[in-house]
Amino acid sequence: MDSDLPPEICTFLATRLGHQSLGRITLLNKACNKTWTPHLYKHLRITTPLQRSRIMTAKFLIALSRNARFIRTIQTRYPLTLVPFADKDELPTLQLRTLDILTDARAETLTQEEDLAIVRILERSPGLLHLNIRRAPIYPVRILMTIVRYQVALRSLSLFNVAEYEKIPQGTVELAKVFLDWCSAELETLTLALFIDGLQINHDPLRHGGPLSIAGEVPTTCKKHPKLRIFTLVGLQDGSELEWHVLKTFLPGCTSLQILDSARPQLSDGIIGWVTDGGDVGDALGQVKGVWPQPLFANSNRPEYSEDQEISKMVANIVKETGRFRPVWHTITLHCRFDLELTQTAQAIARVCTTDLVRLNIGGASQFGSKGMQAVLTSCQDLRQFDSFNHERTNNYLHTFYPSISAKDMISCPWVCRWLTLLHLEILDIPRPDITVDGSGDPLELFGEEENMTKEESHEIQREVYSQLGALSCLEELYLGHRQHAMTKLAIRQELEGDDYDSEDSEDSEDEEDTVGTSQFQMNCLEFSLESGLYLLAGLKELRILDVTFTCHRIGVPELEWMETNFPNLASLRGLDPVRSMEDDVQCKSVLKTLGFFSPEALTWARTHKIEWLPKEDQTDQEWRWVREQDSD
C-alpha cells in the first residue's frame, strides 16, 4: 500500500481496515511502518481472553514502550491489563482521550488491584475527554477523588452503572456532594451510580484523616457545570430527603440541563423516583429550566373503553395547571390489568410530552397500539426509558408484556428519542418467507397479502427496522423477546385476573395447559442475521442486554463474531437457544430445527471462544423451568 497517501486518506482507510490488516501493512517496509503504526495503536481494544494473554507478553510490552504515545483510546474488559500503562519508568505521560472499562458479565465488582490500576492510569492521563467505568469498586472514594484531582477536561463521564442494582458501590452524602461539586466543568453528560448512605450527614470528609484525604489536594471551591445536558444519578433513595443535601450546590450551576434522571432499576406501584419526590429538587430545576417535573401514576382494573379517555384527560390537563414554574410530566406509569389499548392516551402523551418526559412505563397488560407507539417514539425527544416492567413481578421478566408495533408503522418516520437507554418492544408483521410451516408442521399463513414476498423484499423491510434501532446510540438494554406468548395460557390468565381466577372452576383449564410450541414462537420478527441487515446496529456501542427470547431468529456463528466486535459492552444475549426449553414438545423442536433454527454451532463456538456474555446455561432455560414448576404447583 502506498505510504505517501494524504493523512486524511490514511485515517479514512484505517477506520475501514481491521486490526490484523493494519498489522500486516506495518510489516511491509520501513515507510509503511512509519505511516501506519500510529493508526495501528490509536485504538487499543482488549475484550477477549486471547487478547488479554497477548497484551501481557514481553514482545507486546516492548512494542508498547515504543508506541504508547500513539494511543488515544483504550477499551478493556480486564483492568489489570492497564498495569503496563501505569509504569512511569517505562512509558511517558499518556495522551489518552478515551478510557473505557467495559462490562464484565462474570465480575461486576472491581478487585483492589484493578481499582489501583485504574487510579494510576487516571493519574497519568490528564487529557482524557471521555471516561466510562462500567464496573463497581468496593470503595469508590479513591477513583472518585482521583477524577476530581486529575481529570479537569472530561466531557462525558459514566461511573459504576452496573447491570445488577445490588452491586452499585456505597458512598456517603458528603462523598457524592464533593464529587459533584468539584468534577470537571466541561462535562456534557454525567452518569453516577452510587448507593448513598445518609447516616453520616454531618461528617466532614475533608478534615485530616477523612476518607477523601487519600486523593491528595483537591479544589476548595465548587464548580459550575454550564455545559451539562444530561445528568443521571443512580442509587439515591426515594423520599429520603437526601437529594437536596447532595444536589443543592450542584443543580443551580447546570444552566444547560436538559434531562435529569433517577434511573431506578424499575418503576413499581406508584414509587416514581426522587426527581419528582423532592420539592427542593423541583424548585432547583424550575430555576434552571423553568419547569416543575411531575409524576403520573394510573392503575386500573377496569376494561372499559372510558378508562382510556380518563387517562388521556389526566395527561392533557397538565398544560392547564399554573404555578411558579410550568408543570411538565417527567415520569408516567400506566398499569392496567386487562388488555386495554390506550390509543387516546398515547396520542395525548405524544402531543403534550414533546420535551421533559424521561420515563414511560406501560406495565400490566397495557398497550398503546402500533400507531400510538409510533406517535410517542416520534414525539418524545427526552425519553430515556420506555419499559413495561410489572410491579411485584418485575424481577422475573417472563411476566413482562411488551408493547407492540408493526414494522410498517415503525419505519414510516424517524424516531426523535435519541437518548433512549432502555426499550421494551415487540416488532410485528415482518414477512418471513424463510418460514413456511408452523411448529406442528402445518402450512403457515401469517402475512395475508404479503405472504408471497421474496426474501430480498423481506430483508429490505428488516434493514429499515434495523436502521431505526441503530440510530439509538445511547441504548443499553433492548428487549425484543416474545415471552408473553411463551407462558402457558393458564399462567397468563392467572397473571391478568389474579386471585379472582379459579383454575379448578374453569371448563377449559385442561386445554389451557399447552406450553411453548407451534405459534408460541414469534415468526413475524427480525431474523437478526447479517444477511438481513444486523450490521446496521453497529452504532449500539453501549448495548449491555439484548433479548430475543422465543423469536425465530437466525443468530449463528457469523452473527456472534460480529456482536463480539461491535457490541463491546454486551453482558447478556438472551434467547440464543430457546429450543432447549421445549423438553416435552418434540414435534415443534424437530420442525424448527428442520427449518434451520437454533443450530448448536453457535453455542459451541461461544463456549470454545469463552464468550463471557453468553451464560454457561442459557438463561431462558432457567427461567422457563421456573415457570413450569410454578404452573405445576
From TrEMBL:
User: Which residue stretches does the UniProt record annotate as biased composition, category Acidic residues?
Assistant: 498-515
Q: Where is this region: Disordered?
A: 498-517
In which domain of life is the source organism classified?
Answer: Eukaryota
Question: What protein name is recorded for this chain?
Answer: Uncharacterized protein
Top-level taxonomy? Eukaryota, Fungi, Fungi incertae sedis, Mucoromycota, Mortierellomycotina
